[in-house]
Amino acid sequence: IFKFLGAVSVDLGKDRIKPYLPTILTPLYRELNSNYAEQDPTLKNLSQEIIELLKKLVGLEAFSLAFSSVQKLANQKRAMRKKQRALQTVANPDIAARRKLKRHKNKAETRKRKIESLRPTYKAKRPRSHALKDLAMVE
């Protein structure tokens, strides 16, 4: 998709690409700013190359305006999601408690995995599978 965006940008040219610049920059910005664990470095490099190509194509000023608008929109969305999450913990405490329990359980599992990888002879105790107990509602 990134290669396609770059090809379309070059094909449209300087004047016809300007209205579509924020739309093109949105996925590129998302890929550059992402920090998830299984990130592909080739994708990040490709997005950086296409951003440089767009910068040369439309000029620094027009690119900067479009990039800053994309950045601003992404930050607004992130803040809105954070606010929604905070409001949900107040409005639905049972859902928030379930989420918190799940997060703590995942953290304990991660800790056990990390210890096992560092010390292969050590085997962490795994909780028994209580299928019905896991499905029960949290009170």
What labels describe this entry?
0% strand, single chain, 2 domains, 6 helices, mainly alpha
Tell me what you see in this structure.
The structure is a single chain. By secondary structure, the chain is mostly helical. Helices cover 79% and strands 0% of the residues. It has six helices and no strands. The protein has helices at residues 2-17, 21-33, 41-58, 60-91, 93-118, 131-135. α2 (21-33) crosses α4 (60-91) and α4 (60-91) packs across α5 (93-118). It is elongated, with a radius of gyration of 23 Å. The mean pLDDT is 87.
What's this model, at a glance?
This is UTP20 protein. By secondary structure, the protein is mainly alpha-helical.
Q: Helices and strands, in N-to-C order?
A: HHHHHH
Spans with pLDDT under 50 lasting ≥5 residues? none
Tell me the count of domains.
2
- Rounded mean pLDDT is 87
Radius of gyration over all CA atoms, rounded: 23 Å
> Strand share of the residues?
under 5%
- Biggest sheet record: none
Shape: elongated
Query: Count the strands?
Result: 0
Kindly report how far apart the N and C termini lie.
Answer: 46 Å
Structural class: mainly alpha
Number of helices: 6
The percentage helix is over 70%
Organism: Oreotrochilus melanogaster
InterPro entries: SSU_processome_comp_20 (IPR052575), UTP20_C (IPR057525)
Pfam families: UTP20_C (PF23099)
Region (Disordered): 98-139
Write the layout of secondary structure elements.
Elements: H1 2-17, H2 21-33, H3 41-58, H4 60-91, H5 93-118, H6 131-135
Helix pairs in contact: 1-2, 1-3, 2-3, 2-4, 3-4, 4-5
